[in-house]
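Quick one, tokens below. Sequence please?
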């Protein structure tokens, strides 16, 4: 799903052109942010929740501007069976509000197990306790963004059928 305040058509971007993207992992206390660099997503920043979602969304908009991003990819916490549960509903509601502030299209990406993957990666790097809690959100954002970027390079089923 793509949220775009402009009247441009939405849809799956072509994998042919490079895109500058920001990945976002919306947490209740922190927002993890990652940036795309060529074909690699890298952890970038953790935005502490201010208690004012509009202010938090303005910070995301500032990061979009600073990075020259053309899309924001937000992790959607689907239930393990793939359905939209209460957590995903909250994120979808927040994305609607964020779309009023962020000047580029916002796409969602299935983030199931992204935090688990981020935690495992940090444990493998021997990042412990508080240090791990301080960075896990931006690492999860990088996991989400990397999966989204990798999907752009894979042809869709309908494209394979016509190839």
């Amino acid at each position: 799903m793509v949220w775009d305040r402009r009247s441009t058509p939405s849809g799956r971007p072509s994998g042919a052109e490079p895109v500058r993207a920001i990945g976002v992992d919306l947490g209740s206390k922190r927002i993890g942010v990652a940036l795309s660099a060529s074909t690699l997503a890298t952890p970038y920043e953790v935005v502490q929740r201010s208690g004012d979602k509009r202010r938090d969304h303005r910070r995301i908009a500032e990061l979009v501007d600073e990075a020259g991003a053309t899309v924001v990819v937000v992790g959607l916490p689907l239930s393990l069976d793939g359905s939209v549960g209460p957590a995903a509903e909250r994120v979808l509601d927040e994305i609607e509000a964020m779309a009023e502030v962020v000047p580029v299209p916002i796409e969602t990406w299935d983030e199931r197990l992204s935090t688990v993957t981020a935690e495992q990666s940090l444990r493998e790097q021997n990042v412990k306790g508080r240090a791990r809690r301080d960075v896990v959100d931006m690492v999860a954002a990088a996991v989400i963004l990397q999966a989204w970027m990798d999907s752009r390079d894979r042809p869709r089923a309908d494209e394979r059928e016509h190839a």
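The mean pLDDT is 82. The CA atoms of residues 55 and 87 lie 21 Å apart.
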